[in-house]
Amino acid sequence: MNTPANDAQSHTDSSADALQAAVTMADDYCRERGQKLTPIRRTVLELLLASGRATKAYTLLDEMRAMHPNASPPTVYRALDFLLSAGLIHRIESINAFTVCHDLTHCQHGVLIVCQQCGRVTELPQQKQLRQSLMSQVEASGYRLAGDDIELKGICPACQAAEDPSAHKHDHDHDHASH
User: 29: closest CA among 107, 91, 92?
Assistant: First the structure.
C-alpha cells in the first residue's frame, strides 16, 4: 500500500539513485579524459547536484566542513576550478555562484536562466542562431568578448506559483472594470 511516507521514501531513493548515477557519469567522463574525480571534487559535485540550484562557494565550504572539518576555502575553490575546467559545472557570474551542467557529458554552455528568488537555474539548449546573431553584433560593435556565457534573470514557475494570487486577482479585476 502506498502511503505518503512510502512515497516520500521512494522519492528520496530515486533522488539518491539519480545523484549517484550523475556522479558515476561524471567520474567516467573524467576518467575518459585522463582526469580524476578525487573524493573532494566528488563531494563538491554531489553537494551541487543535491542543492539543485546555484550555490555560492562559501555555502559549499560550510557544507563541506560538516563532513570534513578541516576543509578550507582553497580546497573548495580548487575543486570548483577543476569541475569548471572539466565542463561539469557552470559559474553564474551575475550572482557569483555555481551550478551543475544539466548534461554532464555534453556541456554546451547554452543560455542559463537564474531565478532571482530561489536561485534555481534552468539551462536552455545551445541556441546556434541566437549565438551567431549575438556574435556578429558583438563583432560589429568592435568589442572582444572575455566570455560568451549568456545569463538571464527571471522568476521560476515554482516561485511564480508561490506568489500571492490576490495581487494578480486585483490586476485582473481592474482590467475588466476599465472595459
Answer: 107
Per DSSP bridges, beta strands 89-92 and 97-100 are: antiparallel
**102-124 pLDDT tens trace:** 776 666 667 888 899 998 888 88
Q: Please check whether residue 100 is in contact with residue 45, taking contact to mean a CB–CB distance below 8 angstroms.
A: yes
The DSSP letter of residue 88 is S
Q: Of how many residues is the chain composed?
A: 179
Report d(CA 178, CA 62) in Å as an integer: 54
The whole-angstrom separation of Cα 82 and Cα 121 is 21
Domains of the chain: 1-104 (1.10.10.10), 108-179 (3.30.1490.190)
DSSP state letters, 50-67: HH-S-B-HHHHHHHHHHH
Instruction: Report yes or no on whether pTM surpasses 0.85.
Output: no
DSSP state of 68: -
What is the residue whose three cell numbers read 576518467?
31
Confidence band, pLDDT 50/70/90 cuts, at residue 177:
very low
